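User: Run a structure prediction on this.
Assistant: Running it now.
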Amino acid sequence: MKRPDFDDIYMELAVNLAKRSHCIKRHVGAVLVKETRIISIGYNGPPAHTHNCDEEFPETGCDRDSKGSCTLAIHAEQNAILYAVKNNASVEGSKLYVTLSPCLSCARIIYSMGIAEVMYLKSYAEYKGLSSDEGIDFLQKFGVTCKKYEGEIANLTALI
C-alpha cells in the first residue's frame, strides 16, 4: 500500500467537509494545518443558530449580493480561521487547504492572519466567470505561496 501524501489527505478532508455545507449553490471545505497537524476545519454556511439555506429556502437559497454570493454565509476559510482563533490556536505560518480558491475578501483575511500557504482544488474565477483569481493574485503579490492541487480526488460532487 502506498502511503498518501499529506496534501492528498488534507485536500480529501476538505472535499468531505464541503459535503457538510447547506448551501444550494456551492459547497466549499477548508482545512488549516500547522506542521502536519490539523488546527482547524471549516465549510461554508450561515452563522450557527441562524438557518440552513437548503432547508429554509430550498428553491432559491439565501438572498444574494451584487456578485451573486449569499448575503449570510461565512466562507469555509473564514470559518476555519475563526474557529482556530476562537480556540486560541495560532494560525501564523500555517497552510490552508480549500476546495475553492479564496475570494479577495478571504485573501485579505488569510494574509492578515499570517497564513503562509494556500492550496486550492478549483478556481474561484472560473466558478464566478471572472478574468482572474483576484484572491490568489493578491496573496501572491504579498508573498503567500499559492498552489493549485494537482492530485486526484475520488467522489467529487457537482457542487464542489
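The radius of gyration is 15 Å.
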